[in-house]
Amino acid sequence: MPEQQSSERPLWQQIQPGGIGVNPGSTERVQTGDWRTEVPVIDFERCTHCMICWVDCPDASFEVANAKLIAVDLKHCKGCGICAQVCPVKCIEMVPDSAENRETTDVNSGNGASSESAR
Amino acid sequence: MTTTQKQGQKPSSGITLPPAQAINGGEAVAYAMRQIDPEVVAAYPITPQTFIIEKFSEYVADGLVNTEYINVESEHAAMSACVGATAAGGRAQTATSGPGLALMYEMLWVASGMRLPIVMHLCSRSFSAPLNILCDHSDVMGMRESSWPMLIGSSPQEAYDQAVAMPTIAENKSVLLPVANVLDGFTVTHSVERVEVLPDEVVKEFAGEYEPDIWALQPGSTATFGTLDANDFYFEHKRQQVEAMKNSLEVVRTQLNAVGEITGRPMNLVEEYLMDDAEIALVVLGSSEGMVRAAIDQARADGIKVGMVRIRLFRPFPVADVRKALEGIGAVGVLDRAIAFGTPGNGLLQDLATSTRTMPDRPLLMDFVYGLGGRATPKQLFRQAVDEVLNMNETRVEPDEPAYLGLK
């Protein structure tokens, strides 16, 4: 599918047949984390930055900068809780999804590292 | 079946033919598959398709093809494997029948929706229950809306000739759809007839290579296949398929002509028999053509001006060709070999009614259901159908209900 323009959407004659995605990374633009009921909250005091959560996250939602875990990308996190299960020091806790809880974690919230510098 | 050359004679294209084969329709298809040598064949055995894959797996075992033959666990997996193989950049074929087609139904739509030019040989068979392995067109009708161009042959020779043309139709850049080569179960798949085959190199040259623009295993490719559309672009992709189906009609015509020129056996989207001076007609699909012709001959001997129209290209339905064939015809008997339960008309009748509805002097239509579950329909029954159509042409009254030929 070609890049979507916010004001001008392509017509049926203009899109890639068969829905073949020719531009990589298009999922990044899709909000897949909007039906979550829990969010992971990371206790950075105890985090050893072992990156096991980063490896096991099925949605590539852990943000890393300078070899350190810095935040969770809640646009894509579905709240599955795998990270909390695999964390060897148990520093990730799954808590009910709420605006307040999202603030503490989300890379997009403006807390901690900004989403731009995280990438 | 029209056979224009005797053994050893040269066809119009001037090539020397290999000896004609005494083979059944299934083996004729396998013969063409060997010559085309697709990268992948994935199939699951089911009667009456079995001859095709038995014969083809012999070719694989004997090293006569380079094909990767995948023994899958079901027809759903067979079509899935073909989807994967074609998306990866290979040419893939499969074959199935009735219930097998039903099991791969989901993947039929995935194959066409992903615009993957797979070739499937469908040996038509009834749907159970009660259990029946014999021929009717329940499966053909079952996939008619899945965006697959479908050709229905009437003999082992036609099954072979169509099989040669199939990949070039599917892979045409204006089409890029999976295609079905339909041969009637048992009457074509199991009937041993004289089949004139082409030399291997002629078929290989005709089929050429599959050259996709985008494929998954393309070096450096970042393409993703099977993406999510949801309500964003699904509607638009379906509209594209409408266009691809439309485009396929002339591509089928061109490619059938091209094969016909090589073999000397012309193939048309719609085949006509004694239609030039006909006042009434029977319309039929597939191998019943032979028996219908015999009934037409008998009716002609009785002084009835009746002809036959056989529709080879079932999807996309060749509306213009059918209307041209039926121009000036007063009444038409439509021969349906499947029941569309609860609908106002069975499959072929629906197509005929829709195609002819805007003709200035449209022919009256009468539906005949026949041959379900392999029930033999003798010449006399088709001859009776001619009488009923003749009667309708005089009374000018169309029946609401179909007639059931040979029902006990």
Can you tell me about this structure?
The complex is a heterodimer of chains A (119) and B (408). By secondary structure, chain A is of the alpha+beta class. Chain A has one domain: 2-Layer Sandwich (Alpha-Beta Plaits). Helices cover 18% and strands 16% of the residues of chain A. Chain A contains four helices and four strands. In chain A, the strands form two sheets. In chain A, strands 1-4 form a two-stranded antiparallel sheet. In chain A, a hairpin with a 2-residue loop joins strand 2 and strand 3. The longest helix of chain A is centred in the C-terminal third of the chain and has 7 residues. Chain A is elongated and about 55 Å long. The C terminus of chain A is likely disordered. Chain B has 408 residues and is of the alpha/beta class. Chain B has two domains: 243 residues, 3-Layer(aba) Sandwich (Rossmann fold), CATH 3.40.50; 135 residues, Rossmann fold. Chain B is 40% helix and 16% strand. In chain B, the strands form three sheets. Chain B has a seven-stranded mixed beta sheet, sandwiched between helices. In chain B, helix 3 runs parallel beside helix 5 and helix 10 crosses helix 13. The longest helix of chain B is centred in the middle third of the chain and has 34 residues. The N terminus of chain B is likely disordered. The chains are: A alpha+beta (119), B alpha/beta (408). At the A-B interface, loops of A face helix 9 of B.
